[in-house]
Write a structure and sequence with these properties.
The complex is a heterodimer of chains A (118) and B (112). By secondary structure, chain A is mainly beta. Chain A is 3% helix and 54% strand. Chain A is built from one helix and eleven strands. In chain B, 0% of the residues lie in helices and 48% in strands. Chain B is built from no helices and twelve strands. Classes of the chains: A mainly beta (118), B mainly beta (112). At the A-B interface, strand 5, strand 9, helix 1 and strand 10 of A face strand 6 of B.
Chain lengths: 118, 112
Amino acid sequence: ETGVTQTPRHLVMGMTNKKSLKCEQHLGHNAMYWYKQSAKKPLELMFVYNFKEQTENNSVPSRFSPECPNSSHLFLHLHTLQPEDSALYLCASSQDPWTGILAKNIQYFGAGTRLSVL
Amino acid sequence: GNSVTQMEGPVTLSEEAFLTINCTYTATGYPSLFWYVQYPGEGLQLLLKATKADDKGSNKGFEATYRKETTSFHLEKGSVQVSDSAVYFCARLNNAGNMLTFGGGTRLMVKP
């Protein structure tokens, strides 16, 4: 148990559906991240939030819409996805990435949501 | 830019064999380096880390040494077990401390 919980663990959706992925961290961290893990591709950073503010958007299509209502929760809203968006979506958190102190930069990952788009 | 290259798998070993998974990184500054492990059906778990040249990270019998001269952070274990079967990711942290760049992952399969 890493202290980062993702729900649901598995999700199947059609291309016209709207769904949301949820991530919750119980570590008191201030930064949260969304990653995409596709077969045969390196882990791709999608979004970074620090103290609820988005600090990185790694050229992600607008059909992915993140939301961070507080430092403990992070959502990824999905709409009109494509089959190539099928992947494992991982959430991570870190204590405070801007301090230069390694212990505060370490990212802790959830188990992921396995998404299949039909 | 920042990049991490690790050997492609899968790596298949017999139990108690010696393991090496190679990892090299681009040398922009002195990044912190990590190995993460992903067991089947799970997310990534931090395995070990190192912050500066000649640092050795170690955990659960795994070791990796930060080699500045060769920009490498190879993962080693003297005697692997079936339970070590997983995907291993090498990663570097950017200078700002807010972005990890991962290698492509190396799948390790250990047979009894």
